Amino acid sequence: MATMKDVARLAGVSTSTVSHVINNNRYVSEGIRAKVNHAIATLNYAPSALARSLKMNCTRTIGMLVTASNNPFYAEVVRGVERSCYEQGYSLILCNTEGDYERMDTSLETLLQKRVDGLLLMCTEARAPSSEVLNRYPRLPMVMMDWSPFEYSSDIIQDNSLLGGELATNYLIEKGFTDIACIAGPQDKLPAKHRLQGYYNAMQQAGLPIRKELVLTSDFEFAGGFSAMQTLLSLPIQPQAVFTCNDAMAVGAYQAIYQKGLRVPDDISIVGYDDIDLASYMIPPLTTIHQPKDELGKLAVSQLLRRMEDIEAQANLLVLTPKLIERGSVIAHRK
Asked: What total number of domains does the chain contain?
């Protein structure tokens, strides 16, 4: 493989001149530039990104640790992150945790050894990454996305899940429903806990009783929503409407309702959460709480770049505001 020295030797110039031509950061006469470019083409020389990063102490690479999941929400956020990285001239290295603590720590170590310039964390594990790993890189710029804070100086970007839970439940209440079920996410996760609390708040403020059997905890996955909805449909008195605390579980709930020979929204109304791309293509289209996923990805990258410029700046908590998207999965309750 040709080196910069080989190019310089063939062009009859110094290695610094070759560097100036490649990086276009100093004036080089057109004649010399032509010789260098001819030598590069002849030798099929490719500049070493590793060598450049070691010299500049900058890899132009961002690492992201994300939970592997069937939930399309994560893929849509990653898509926004990758697009924003590309627009800013950075590459993205993505590692999945597979919901495993050991793999989370191993993946984190891998990203840090690759000398990423900054790190985005979007994991659903209840435990933070190994402090032993993090302490070896004390000045690493980091942004956590929709994840419970822990003792590490980093910026945090979260959805206002409490407000989102209230919006979803209040919408069903305004439609005349009183027996409203909630299929919540795992309660060791802060967003899931807040969405469920939003449901409780709205029901209590409306003076509506909350039947214990109508509040189920699931896993934010398709199968979890299917299983939870089957449980609700087996009750002697079925709920009139259901708030599923994410859209993936709403998809599973649709399937359980269909298999029972019932229809959404004629027999039961549903509100989801996240507004994944699939939501508008469901039959009927899903009424849901919109999370600005592209904005979340773009904001996370922008905040990380700011943190990379000033590692000593005070950590920030940035909160995104959810909004209700009305579609066809809810109708007014017929008394």
From this structure: 3
Give the C-alpha separation, 9 to 2, whole Å. Answer: 11
Q: Where are the alpha helices (DSSP H) in 131-243?
A: 131-135, 161-174, 190-205, 222-233
pLDDT at 237 over 60: yes
Q: How far apart are CA 41 and CA 32, in angstroms?
A: 14
Give every CB contact of residue 241 below 8 A, 6+ residues apart in sequence.
Answer: 172, 175, 177, 179, 180, 181, 268, 269, 270, 271, 330, 333
User: Same structural domain for residues 83 and 128?
Assistant: yes
Helix (H, G, I), strand (E, B) or coil at 253: helix
Strand blocks (E) in the chain: 61-66, 91-96, 118-122, 142-145, 155-159, 180-184, 215-217, 241-244, 269-274, 287-290, 317-320, 323-325
Residues 6+ apart with CB under 8 A from 314: none
pTM: 0.81
pLDDT of 156 reads: 86
Across-strand partners of 325?
288
For the chain, what is the radius of gyration of the CA atoms?
Answer: 26
pLDDT single digits (tens) 266-275:
999 999 999 9
Nearest-angstrom CA–CA distance, 141 and 62? 10
Both 285 and 249 in a single domain?
yes
Q: Give yes or no: residues 273 and 316 share one domain.
A: no
Q: Tell me: the pLDDT tens digits for 61-113? A: 999 988 767 788 888 999 999 999 999 989 999 988 877 778 888 888 888 88
Reference 104, options 62, 132, 141; nearest CA is: 132
Does one domain contain both 28 and 68?
A: no
List Cβ neighbours of 235 (8 Å cut-off, separation of 6 or more): 213, 214
